[in-house]
Amino acid sequence: MTTTNTTRFTGRTVLVTGAGSGIGRAVALAFAAEGAQVVVAGRRREPLDETVRLIEDRGGKALAVTADVSRAEDAEALVRAAVDLPRSRLRSSGGTPIGSLDVAVNNAGVFRGGQPLADLPEADWREQLDVNVTGVFLALRAEIRRMRTQPSGGAIVNVSSTFGAHTSPAGAAAYSATKAAVTALSRSAAADHIRDGVRINVVSPGATATPMSLRRGETEADRAERARATLPLGRISATEEVAAAVLHLASDAAASTVGTDLVVDGGGSL
């Protein structure tokens, strides 16, 4: 991926949840390409290790930490790990603590749907609430508690969706409800904590080049044809395009942007 500025996050520590694939991996790669030390988090170690390998192969610095953000103790331990693990674990010199959490991107989420609400299993409803809402709340709370103690504060970007606050598609009632909750939670938290030096915003992707945007039985070619016919842009978004929006909101260039919900969907929710 090319970028117009490769130094915006030099010397900063960035935490990305759900970084084992898709948007989360693209976000982690983008921050590393711009100089950040990136802590990548998720429930499964193997895909996190692959994200770290991709970053290190490009000359960046990254560390994988397994965590389930729907558990308060995991969310708190994840923030401690991002702050306290020695730099030597990130293959840099010294051995002093990292010291600060400068940026957090709460991207972890699950989708269980495709059927009408009346046919949705309760277990699927609860899993989406646990990961998509409670997980964001617990991670957000832990991150804010750390950032507000730092002289430089911090920036947080929560990854929501056009589903919920912007569109209401059939077959995604539970997922849409959880993502609408993420947007509302983020805006309220932004108002609560901007005076603490913690700046919180949201990116809401629409159809993006990940498996989640494939309909049942649909191929990537089928998806591309559907996008040409239905999206104003004529295509779905690349994960790198969503990552670019996240990095903008986390950067100093967006220093006065607070509580916004930046939609990246090729005009699909217009």
Task: Give a short synopsis of this structure.
By secondary structure, the chain is α/β, with parallel strands linked by helices. 41% of the residues lie in helices and 14% in strands.
What does this structure look like?
The protein is α/β, with parallel strands linked by helices and 270 residues long. The chain has a single domain, classed as Rossmann fold (3-Layer(aba) Sandwich). 41% of the residues lie in helices and 14% in strands. The chain contains 8 helices and 7 strands; from the N terminus they run E-H-E-H-E-H-E-H-E-H-H-E-H-H-E. It has helices at residues 22-33, 45-57, 72-84, 122-147, 162-165, 173-193, 220-230, 239-250; strands at residues 13-17, 37-42, 61-66, 103-106, 154-159, 198-205, 261-264. It has a 7-stranded parallel beta sheet, with helices on both faces. Helix 1 (22-33) links the parallel strand 1 and strand 2 (37-42). Helix 1 runs parallel beside helix 2 (45-57). The longest helix is centred in the middle third of the chain and has 26 residues, at 122-147. It is globular and about 45 Å long.
